[in-house]
Each structure stands twice: as structure tokens, then as C-alpha cells.
TrEMBL record:
Start and stop residues of the WD repeats: 19-60
Family: Belongs to the WD repeat THOC6 family.
Gene Ontology biological process terms in this record: mRNA export from nucleus
Keywords: Repeat, WD repeat
Family matches, as PROSITE patterns: WD_REPEATS_1 (PS00678), WD_REPEATS_2 (PS50082)
A GO cellular component annotation in the UniProt record: THO complex
Organism: Rhizochromulina marina
Listed name of the protein: Peroxin-7
Length: 247
């Protein structure tokens, strides 16, 4: 809550505090293990890059704000960086006024080349983004609107030139807001499913297995949660397959 990041060595139980760059509470942290760097993003909109060897801040990045925006208050809600500390993805939101002095809110997604402190590509969304995940070359994000956004990410391996970040599709949810939780789950499923799409299932219900092993196939399911007791599950990227109700 004070803008500081805290680390604990599990072997020596030594405590490390990284503070002084973020001035408001943190939303997300990410570690570039091979580069020995920690990335923090907070309510103040600052994305700080920390050297874990010296416990010092080595860079401060500012996500983009919508064009023609004034009185902007932005925040960094979610971060992800590769192990080498080269490529950083930042998502969040911003409150601002437009040219007509009307209050407005937007979301932002940006791709950074960390060594050069350069923003490679960025895009804005109608509502703030609160969480995202990478999966098989695609970036998936959720936020303060009932949908999942799919992004194509094209970083340049040789440096900041030639990268890209583009929306490739969107899938509507039936839950009120895909606010924060998003994950990819792998498992086994029946080769044919007789239940209708968007069926309502009770978590913890007593179900007896009736499917043989040779009738199963490997599948991956995208699970999205929000401001409701429901979890939306996608077996295909275009629409929900079923909904879980947490009771």
C-alpha cells in the first residue's frame, strides 16, 4: 500500500525493500530472472525497473495516455516480462477529460523494449484492462467490460524497430464484467459434448464419472472471472462454452 516492493530470501530469511520510485500502492510485479530485474507497476501510473543485485531503480517508464487527453490519471494494472528482461507488456487504465472537458475512462496496452527504454507499440481500449496472459503467441486481456480481447504481438528480436501490437478479435462474455481473473487450464474432456453452450454448472456438485479413458481427448480451456459468482469457460476463442457458478 505504500508503493514499496518487498522480497524475502527463503533460505536466509533476509528481507529486501525496494522503494522510492512508485508513490502509490502497487498493482503488479514481474520478475526477469536471468536479467536479475524486478518490474513494478502501480496506481500512480509509473512502471519501475529495479536491479535486484543492487536493490536500486534503474529506469522509470510511463505508459501512454489517450491523445488529446487532459487532467490524466493513469495506472498500471498488469505486467509481464520475459526472463531476459528484453520485452515488457504493460496494461492498465486512465481517467481523463477530453477536449469537451467531459470525464472519460480508457484502457491501455503497450509493448516495451526494456534495454532501450523504448515503447514499441501501444493501443487503447474503451475500458481499463485489469489482467492479461500470453498463450501460444497470442495475448489475451480482460477488464472493466464483459469481453475477452485477443491481441497479436510481433516483437522484433533485434531491437525496438519492427514490433507490433494489434487487436485480432474479441469474444463477448455473459458475466457482468470480466474484471480481473483470467487463466488457461489444460485437461482431458469428452470428444463429444452433449450439453448446450453456456450451461450452468454448480462447483462441487456430486458427479459420477461415466466416460472411459479412450473417449477423452486433450483440450485447453480459457477461464474468466469477474464481478459475479460465475466463471466463464471458453473451449473455443469465439464464445463461452459453459459457465461455472461458485456456491
Amino acid at each position: 500500500g505504500d508503493g514499496s516492493a518487498h522480497g524475502l530470501n527463503l533460505e536466509s530469511e533476509a528481507h529486501t525493500e525496494l522503494s522510492g520510485t512508485n508513490t502509490d500502492f502497487l498493482h503488479s510485479v514481474a520478475v526477469a530472472a536471468k536479467a536479475q530485474q524486478l518490474i513494478t507497476g502501480g496506481e500512480d501510473g509509473v512502471v519501475a525497473v529495479w536491479d535486484l543485485r543492487s536493490s536500486t531503480s534503474v529506469a522509470s517508464l510511463a505508459p501512454p495516455v489517450p491523445p488529446h487527453a487532459t487532467n490524466t490519471r493513469s495506472w498500471a494494472a498488469a505486467l509481464e516480462v520475459d526472463d531476459e528482461g528484453n520485452w515488457l507488456t504493460v496494461a492498465g487504465g486512465a481517467d481523463f477529460t477530453d477536449g469537451k472537458s467531459s470525464p472519460a475512462t480508457a484502457g491501455h496496452m503497450s509493448l516495451w523494449h526494456v534495454p532501450s527504454r523504448t515503447i514499441v507499440s501501444h493501443a487503447f481500449t474503451p475500458s481499463p484492462i485489469h489482467a492479461f496472459t500470453h498463450h501460444e503467441g497470442t495475448l489475451l486481456s480482460v477488464g472493466a467490460e464483459p469481453l475477452v480481447t485477443y491481441w497479436d504481438v510481433h516483437p522484433s528480436s533485434g531491437g525496438p524497430a519492427g514490433g507490433g501490437l494489434d487487436v485480432s478479435g474479441r469474444a463477448n462474455c455473459t458475466i457482468p464484467s470480466a474484471y480481473c481473473a483470467l487463466s488457461i487450464a489444460s485437461g482431458e474432456s469428452p470428444k463429444t459434448v452433449e450439453s448446450e453452450n453456456a450451461a450452468m454448472l454448480d462447483v462441487g456438485a456430486d458427479l459420477e464419472p461415466t466416460i472411459e479413458d479412450d473417449e477423452l481427448e486433450h483440450c485447453e480451456v480459457l477461464c474468466v472471472g469477474g464481478r459475479s459468482p460465475f466463471v466463464e469457460c471458453f473451449a473455443n476463442p469465439s464464445s463461452p462454452s459453459f459457465t461455472l457458478r461458485v456456491t
